[in-house]
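hey can u check if this looks right to u? its 418 residues, i copy pasted from the old doc so theres a chance i mangled smth
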Amino acid sequence: MIELMLLAQLFAAPTPKPAAPADTWTEFRGPNGTGHYTGPAVPTEWGTSKNVAWESKIDGLAWSTPILVKGKLYLTTAVPKGDDHELRVLCLDAATGKVVWNELVFLQSGKSAPNVHKKNSHASPTPVSDGERVIVHFGHMGLASYDLAGKQEWKSQKYEYKPMHGNGGSPILAEGLLVFSIDGNDKQQVVALDPKTCDEKWVADRKSKAGLKFTFTTPQLIEHDKKKQIISAASDFVCGYDPKTGDELWRASYPKPGWSLITRPIYASGLVIIQTGYMNQHLMAIDPSGSGDVTKSHVKWTYQKHAPNTPTPLVVGDELYSLSDKGVLVCLDIKTGKVHWEERLSKDGYSSSPILANGKIYATSESGLGHVVEPSTSELKVLASSELNEKTFATILPADGALYIRTETKLYKFAEKK
C-alpha cells in the first residue's frame, strides 16, 4: 500500500501555479510571460471616444509596454533634447493617469548613439518588477533599479555592447535573479544579477558562430520534468540554461540565416516554441529534455509559411495562435504543428504581441486597429474591432477590468463605465 501511495505521488500532476493578482502585470507579457489575464472582464471595444477612463500624454518616443504594480503604472521613454535623448522612467497613477514621478536614468549622446531601426525606439524594453522595485533596461546604454517611490537603488553601465538597430529585449526575474540577454555585433551573452544590489551572479558566453549576431529576445523561465531552465534564443540557435549557474544545458540550431530575433520563447505542453528570426523565419517546437546539441533529436515540428518576425505567439489550451507581421493569424495544434486555419486579420502591419483576456484574444496593429478574437480551431472568429488611428507598437496591458494601451504619443486606460 505504501509503495502504491509513493507511486501515486510520484506521477501526480504538478500543482498549478496560483493565478497572479488581477491588478498586477509585472513584466513583458505579464506574470510568467504567458500573456494571460483572468481578472474582472475588460472591454471588448475601445477608441478615442469609447470606454476611455483616461488618456495621458507621454513625452518622447518608446515602444516599451507599461507594467502595473500596486496601483501604479511604470514605463520608460526616450525624450529628444537636441541631438541627445533623455532615457527616463515614469510612474503614473493607474486610477487617474496622473504622473506621480518622472526620473532621468541616462542621457544618451546623439554624437555616439547608434541609429535605431525605423520601427524601433531608444526605449523599447519593458520594465520588470518584484513588487518592491522597478528595474528598467535600455539595452547597450545600461539598466537601473528604482523603489516604487522613485528613489534610485542602483544604476549600471557595465554591460555595454555594440548594438544594431537599437535595443529591444526585456529583462526578467527568474529564481531570484535579474536575467537579460546581450546579442550585439561584438558580444553575445546571458547575464544574471542580484536585483537588489546589481551584483553579478553569472554570465553565460553564447559562444556564437552566427554570421549576423544581433538579436533582441527576452528570456523565459520554464520548469520541465521538475527542473527549472532559462530559455534564451540567439542568432542561429536557442539554448536552455541552468538558472543557478548559467551552465548551458542544451542547444538547438535553426535554418540559417536566423538573426534579429524579437519574440519571447513560449513553453506549453512540454515544448519550447521559438521564432527563428528574419530572412528565413520559422516557428520551431523543441523538447527541452535533452542535453548538448539536440537539433536532430528533439525538434518536434517546424512551421514557416506565416511565421512572425515580431509578435510573440499566444497559447490557448492546446492551440498556438501566431500573428504574422503582415496580419495573418494562424491557429496550430501546439503538440504537432498541424495548421487548423490561416486567416488575415487586416492588411495592416503588426508588431505588438497578442494577449488572452477573459478567454478572448486581443491584438492591435501598427496603425492602432484593435481586434478581439474568439479562440476556435474551425475558423477565424472576430468578435469586435476598434480604432485608435495612431501608431501602436506596444503590447496591450490588461489588468483589474481595464485595458492599458500605449500609442506613439499617449497612454490610454479603457474601462467600461459602471
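The first strand starts at residue 36 and ends at 37.
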